[in-house]
Design a protein that fits this description.
It is a single chain. The protein is about 55% helix and about 5% strand. By secondary structure, the protein is mainly alpha-helical. Strands 5-7-6 form a three-stranded mixed beta sheet, with helices on one face. Strands 1-2 form a two-stranded antiparallel ribbon. A two-stranded antiparallel sheet has the order 3-4. A hairpin with a 6-residue loop joins strand 3 and strand 4.
Length: about 750
């Protein structure tokens, strides 16, 4: 997912780490309590390295295909996509000036000095001055990065460090409580008042586990190169898996298997407290009943998940993906100056306003991924094979049912969404890219429209290309304030209370996410380098943070919204900031640039992600009959590009250097069939914003009520106050027409007015 308008408002990246899932038996285990972490991408921007979505949530209902960093509940932020990766250390061109993204001072200065030395023989005085300027700029940015705020985890979690012995003592105490919990309540939930008492004790265990493990997980994400830190985290997660499987797993299974009359009887006790406070949690657990395996099998799967199964292969894929290096070439002589990671390469491509540079970057990317195809194919075969066995053994109806059930959304609703996108969405997509092709031809002299130009910036505005952290905060605060003083206050509190880790530095996880960290959170991890899209990321992740804060009152078992609503606050946060800036656009050129960027945003969230889903379906269907070769995966990828973007010559003149872009979409490995959620979320927010635009009075209160409900309201119920009916046959196509179609119409009118396209 990419955003290119002059204050591009991208959805943030969901940061994922190691993935654990099914075991040697090839299924993933049912996880209850703190282990119910369904990997939902997110809410999220794009991601080049291994990512999954650690939702420390009760939203998992039946299986956790990937359980990683279970207590680091991340926002759904980052969409896997070509040119969407957050920027890390390195050199890239921007507006004909050389900028350096932040990496540690010594290593970056050394890189520049080496670059200077290697070219000193052939450089003249002017070129040497340019190198000196780059070095000075590098030093200035290093100083600036050190001044950007870091989160203060120790202050909020009350631990001295990840190695604090108090963490181990707390885990010992939690283990004792887990054993007591099992001994006291297993097999006895139908007894008088036992269900209420057991849920309350289970909730206490969840909160205590979350505090200790969320802290370590977050701390490790800013110390990725510290192997001792990573070992500490892995050790604690293994201990957690043992606790979950041996002492907690049974609870979700027994709740699911209770007789309805036993539950109704206990609902009437204690003045209805059980029903009033925990009904949503109980109903969620009971939705898993048709798909549960026996206690013995579920326990075995959970206990083994940290040690065996596809987890290791998927983790290896992610680690190798993050280690890929690509040759960055000098624009003048074509010689390789250095090797960079994928994030730097993609940053160079998206920031460049030169067609040749973009295409060179696309070529370098695709050629590098060709060499990576076998590693990717191995992992994807493991994932698809495990998914197939899981569906078969648990009795899911079709390929997406496992994901849909866990998200509490009917298969029919998802099928309706996918159909609308493949028809109405694809038509609007092609219309948009034809318009963009014409504008680029007029403004940049583009002769051939290729995939490398898909997310190219329409470079006609006069707005700033770079923002300080203070400016970014003010922009987001102003946007939130205009819509909701309540949301603005929560945003300001996150900034002032040091809950955001801001700078882009080495040793830190790439992308961005928001961790709920129930009881101590929320916390945001950013990689802020001052770009327009970094401001959008702040708006997005802050929306997740506000959502968490408002829903905490539902308790740890019910605060997290279902996937269908999880992106509401984050994408709405982007939208209100975007609209605020659009109103202040100084010229028609700036306005057109912003609208075109927003259209890029929506298409990448909706059409692109649904094309990803179609690719997954092709691979998974083939996997049911045996191993899928890298060549077959490449062919499936090409077919999906044609299905969603047309044949070569229809819109795009060439699909050159796109054959292996499937190899780095980590969602395919970490969260199968998750990607449609971006389309779901973007169109829901588009529909909600349409309601707000027509009738702003009373809208803020309704939206805050929706966010405060957390996971206690379903999708349809939550949208009723807004007059929206997602069960309607035309809901998705209408949302596409209003949301994307409306912006596209406005863009066409401005482009004609400015004589960029013919009348």
């Amino acid at each position: 997912h990419t955003h290119n308008y002059n204050m591009s408002f991208i959805s943030s990246s969901l940061n994922v780490t190691s993935s654990s899932s099914s075991l040697s038996l090839s299924f993933s285990a049912k996880v209850g309590g703190a282990a119910s972490f369904l990997m939902k991408n997110g809410a999220a921007r794009r991601s080049s390295s291994s990512r999954a979505y650690n939702n420390n949530t009760r939203r998992s209902l039946l299986t956790t295909p990937i359980v990683v960093d279970v207590f680091n509940t991340t926002s759904h932020g980052q969409r896997d996509d070509d040119e969407n990766t957050p920027k890390r250390g390195g050199v890239f061109k921007k507006n004909a000036k050389t900028f350096l993204t932040t990496t540690p001072l010594n290593s970056r200065r050394q890189n520049l000095l080496l670059l200077s030395r290697s070219t000193s023989i052939r450089t003249n005085a002017t070129q040497q001055q340019q190198h000196d300027q780059m070095l000075r700029k590098d030093e200035e940015e290093d100083v600036a990065a050190t001044k950007q705020p870091r989160w203060e985890l120790e202050r909020h979690f009350k631990f001295e460090s990840p190695n604090d012995s108090n963490i181990d003592r707390e885990m010992d105490a939690i283990e004792t409580k887990c054993k007591e919990f099992k001994a006291k309540y297993e097999g006895k939930l139908s007894s008088n008042a036992a269900l209420l008492e057991s849920i309350e004790m289970f909730e206490e265990i969840e909160i205590e586990l979350t505090r200790a493990l969320s802290y370590v997980s977050l701390a490790s994400d800013t110390r990725l190169e510290d192997m001792k830190m990573q070992q500490r985290k892995a050790s604690l997660m293994q201990r957690y898996g043992s606790l979950q499987g041996n002492f907690l797993q049974w609870f979700s299974l027994e709740i699911a298997n209770l007789e309805e009359e036993d539950i109704e009887k206990q609902y009437k006790m204690h003045d209805g407290k059980l029903k009033t406070k925990y009904k949503a949690f109980i109903e969620e657990e009971r939705r898993s009943k048709p798909y549960n395996l026996s206690k013995e099998v579920e326990r075995a799967l959970t206990v083994r998940s940290a040690f065996a199964g596809k987890r290791q292969v998927v983790e290896f894929y992610g680690n190798e993906l993050s280690r890929l290096r690509f040759p960055l070439k000098d624009s003048e002589n074509g010689e390789t100056t250095k090797e960079v990671n994928m994030e730097v390469l993609l940053a160079k491509m998206t920031s460049s306003k030169d067609t040749k540079t973009r295409r060179e970057c696309m070529n370098i990317l695709n050629e590098g991924l060709v060499k990576f195809e076998r590693t990717c194919a191995l992992s994807l075969n493991m994932v698809a094979g495990s998914w197939h066995i899981e569906n078969t053994e648990r009795g899911f109806k079709n390929l997406r049912s496992q994901r849909n059930v866990s998200n509490n959304v009917p298969d029919e609703a998802v099928d309706s969404l996918l159909l609308a996108v493949k028809t109405t969405g694809v038509d609007l997509c092609k219309k948009y890219y034809r318009l963009k092709k014409g504008i680029l031809k007029e403004t940049q002299g583009l002769e051939e429209f290729t995939w490398a130009d898909r997310n190219a910036t329409i470079d006609i505005g006069t707005g700033s290309d770079s923002y300080s952290w203070e400016q970014a905060v003010q922009i987001c605060k102003d946007g939130y304030e205009k819509f909701s003083p309540t949301m603005a206050k929560h945003f300001t509190d996150m900034v002032e209370n040091k809950r955001i880790d801001v700078p882009a530095v080495d040793g830190k996880r790439g992308g961005a996410y928001c961790s709920s960290s129930y009881g101590c959170g929320p916390f945001q991890l950013l990689n802020f380098t001052g770009t327009q899209r970094d401001v959008a990321t702040l708006a997005h992740e802050s929306g997740h943070g506000v959502h968490f804060i408002l829903s905490y009152k539902q308790g740890i078992l019910q605060y997290h919204p279902p996937l269908t609503l999880a992106e509401t606050a984050s994408i709405f946060g982007e939208m209100i900031v975007f609209r605020d800036l659009l109103e202040r656009a100084p010229s028609d050129q700036d306005r057109l640039q912003m609208i075109m960027g927003k259209c890029d945003d929506i298409i990448n969230s909706v059409v692109r992600q649904c094309s990803f889903d179609a690719f997954e379906a092709k691979v998974h269907e083939k996997r049911q009959n045996g191993q899928v070769t890298p060549e077959e995966m490449t062919e499936a990828w090409k077919e999906c590009m044609v299905d969603y973007y047309g044949e070569e010559g229809d819109v795009y003149d060439s699909y050159k250097d796109t054959s292996h872009l499937w190899a780095y979409v980590s969602h395919f490995h970490n969260v199968p069939f998750y990607v449609y959620s971006y389309a779901f979320a973007d169109l829901v927010v588009g529909a909600l914003y349409g309601v707000y635009a027509k009738q702003p009075e009373g809208f803020e209160e309704k939206l805050l009520d929706l966010l405060s409900a957390g996971g206690t309201k379903g999708f349809v119920e939550a949208l009723e106050p807004f007059g929206l009916d997602p069960s309607s046959d035309t809901f998705w196509s209408d949302a596409l027409t209003a949301h994307l179609g409306g912006l596209l119409d406005e863009a066409e009118q401005l482009a004609k007015k400015l004589n960029y396209v013919s009348q």
